[in-house]
Please model this.
Amino acid sequence: MRKLLFAALTLAACSAPAIQAITVSTPSNGAQLTSPFTVTASTTTCAGVPAVSMGYSIDSGTAVIEPISFSARVYASAGSHVLHVKCWGKNTHDEKLLNITILAAPVSDITVSTPSNGATVSPTFTLTASTRTCASKPAVSMGYSIDSGTAVIEPTSFTASVSAPAGAHVLHVKCWGQGVGDQKLLNINVVQPPKGPQIPSYAHVQQQIDLLPGWRIKHDPATPGTATGSMTLVSDPTLTGQTEKYLTTFTNAGGILYSNTYGNDTDSTHFVYDVHVWLTADSVLSNLEMDGNQVMRNGHTIIYGFQCSGYAGVWEYTENSGTVDQTKAHWLKSTAPCNPAKWTRNTWHHIQISVSRDDSGNVTYHSVWFDGVEQPINKTVMSEFSLGWALGALVVNFQVDGIGTSGSATIYVDNLKMSRW
Model:
């Protein structure tokens, strides 16, 4: 009798269902959710044996494997689904099934016209955005914030000037309705704006004119005394790997004009002269002239004359104070201070000169940037000359004028370029 009772108990134990140890904290069975939602589950055993892994799938989809305690972000389409939360042990597996309903996501028609996602912007940029709905309800207001900053409230259609420090940020463009809120996230990269004149992307840029062959070296007869000059290619000091060394020797304030033809263009009306200059400690000079010439379609030459004048202590610019045929080149003084004798020696200085012209021979000297600092000029003068030069010729000039009875100047020039459009 005892044997029969023991056998019956043993048979009952073998036929009893395995204990399911899967625990699903979220979601609950029958839950209504929006996608994505979170599945949080754990177990220690699986079908009566130690569990070694878990996972989940939606309906009959492929299972995503997880550890025996996990929290996962799960995506599913709108509608009714069966969520399978699974476990595996040695030679066995089990699962827990939950019925869930994915609701359609609330709709917001937030439109951001500028900036675009992934845009590179300046520290102060324009944000233009609008919306009609917010989480499927009529929008009543909008706003924005940088990263986790406090939101600035705006109307449902707005343009705002936004400031942010340099670096990568997330721009939050937000909306609010009755009891709801939503947002659109954009990644932006904030940089320091370039220091210098703005050059359009379609401009033609002639790089490293200092390395072109064919430079002409001559004493400028408009200066007194005598002068000789030479150009030598060196590698120290340098910014680009190759630098032109200008050695000018003079008597009685003589000057040397270094010039070269770098292109042909009758029609461009805007020019930027851009150069890096290094003066040695023993250099003696009065003026440093950096200018260009252009022969227009009518055969007349525009002179874009510009110099740092040690005599006047300011930047000077050229005009034709005569007529086109009876020319008279004349230097005019700006109010922007400059004296090459006061430039820091044995270091690179960056000079950028922005000029433009019209079809009547009038030249506007806009600004000069010295080491990234703008000095506005904003002067317009007539600077058209009948010189009989070749049509369309573009000439760049670099002139060194001495001071005193005799002396010399050693100047290094690197990355001389001209932009035009």
User: Anything to note?
Assistant: The first helix runs from residue 2 to 15. The mean pLDDT is 93. The CA atoms of residues 141 and 420 lie 46 Å apart.
